[in-house]
Each structure stands twice: as C-alpha cells, then as structure tokens.
Amino acid sequence: MKRNWLNVEVGLYGLALLIAILIRVLRLGALPLSDHEAVWGLQALELAKGSLQTVGNYPGYVLWTGLLFYLFEASNWLARLLPAFIGALAPLAVYFYRRYLGQVEAILLAFALALSPALTANSRVIDGSGMALICLLLTGGFWLGGYPVAMGIAAGWALLSGPRVWLGLLIGT
Fold it and tell me: What CA–CA distance (Å, rounded) separates 99 from 123?
C-alpha cells in the first residue's frame, strides 16, 4: 500500500510542477522588458554576440540567457525564460521537506506555491531574488535528502543568482 501512495504522491508533485511551469511560461513575453530587466537582457545579448565587456550582478542569468540568445533568436520571452523556469521549481523544492511538514501538508504547499500569484510574478521578472530563493530552498532540500552533488549545483546556482542570495541566507539563519 505504501508503494501506491508513493506513486500518487510523486504524480501529485509532478502535476504541481507542470502547473507551475505552465502558469509561469504562458504569455511570458507579452509585456516589454522594464528598464531594470533590459539592462540584464542586453548584457546577455552582448554575450551572445561576443561583445560583452563586463558582467553585472547576475552572472548566472547573463551566462545562461546569453547561451539561449546564441542558440535561438533573442526575445522578451526568452529573456524571462530562465527566471520563470527556476521559479517553477518551487513545488519540487517542497518535495524534500515533506518528511518535516507531513505528506499531505507538503503536497498542499506544493500546489499553493505553484499557484501563488506572488511567486508567479516574481518568477516572471528578470531579478535574482526569485532564482536565489528557489535555489536556496533546493540546496537545503538536497542537503536534507543526502544528495551532495545536487546540493552543490543548487548552491552554485544560488550564488550565481546575484546579491539577493545573501539576504536569503541572512533571513534563513
């Protein structure tokens, strides 16, 4: 019986993750980039063209979005894709905390985070705060789950998310 619950549980987390991705990606490029977002988008575009002189506060964003711009045509949708995708991983982060929250409560929290207007709005903006938050949650979850390599990757992503990660670390301690 426990095995069936595990399959249902994993399926529910997968559904929450799918909902989070769809909500964050649909109509992602409908609005033009703000001035703040355009600074980072232009740095990524300069990197894709090979003319970037310096990288600002969000090196992870600039590097990976620059790669996306190099591979595909640059657009507002593509400029916001990385923060939206990382923000959509919030239900996955909750999966690792289910032992402490309880299985039902963790599933409910995963759906709440997938549907959260605040997290959705934060994920749809080029800003390191959403990426840092989710990467820090994933770092802690991987640590609790005993996945040191994944923890290191998530911690590296958190550090590359920009200076907002320090605020998250300060609040978390």
Answer: 26
pTM: 0.85
Give pLDDT tens digits for 130-160. Answer: 888 889 899 999 999 999 999 999 999 988 8
Cα distance between residue 63 and residue 160, in whole Å: 10
DSSP state of 80: H
Rg (CA), the chain: 17
Q: Which of 161, 157, 130, 132 is nearest to 56 (CA)?
A: 161
pLDDT bracket for residue 165 (50, 70, 90): confident
Contact 136, 168 (CB under 8 A): yes
From its phi and psi, is residue 55 left (phi > 0), alpha (psi between -120 and 50) or beta? beta
**For the segment 9-43, what is each residue's pLDDT rounded down to a tens digit?**
889 999 999 999 999 999 888 888 888 888 888 99
CA distance 90 to 163: 20
Size of the chain, expressed as the number of residues it contains: 173
Which of 137, 128, 55, 35 minimizes the C-alpha distance to 93? Answer: 137
- Burial (CB < 10 A; 0-12, 13-18, 19+), residue 56, is exposed
- The DSSP element (H or E) to which 86 belongs, if any, is helix 76-87
